[in-house]
Amino acid sequence: MHEGAPMDEEELVSRVRAEGGLRDHREARRSIGAVLGALRCATAQEDADAIATQLPPPFAKIVSRPAVGRIGNSAALYAEVERRERVGLGFALEHCQVVLRVLAELLDPEIVLRLRRRLPGDIAGLLRARAETLEPSPPHVHEHPPEAAGPRRTLSRGRPGCADPIVDARHLLAHGQSVARSSAPHADRAIGTAHSTRPGREDETLAAARGRQAPK
Question: Which H, E and C letters describe the chain, residue by residue?
Answer without folding.
Answer: CCCCCCCCHHHHHHHHHHHHCCCCHHHHHHHHHHHHHHHHCCCCHHHHHHHHCCCCHHHHHHHHCCCCCCCCCHHHHHHHHHHHHCCCHHHHHHHHHHHHHHHHHHCCHHHHHHHHHHCCHHHHCCCCCHHHHCCCCCCCCCCCCCCCCCCCCCCCCCECCECCCHHHCCCCCCCCCCCCCCCCCCHHHHHHHCECCCCCCCCCEHHHHHHCCCCC
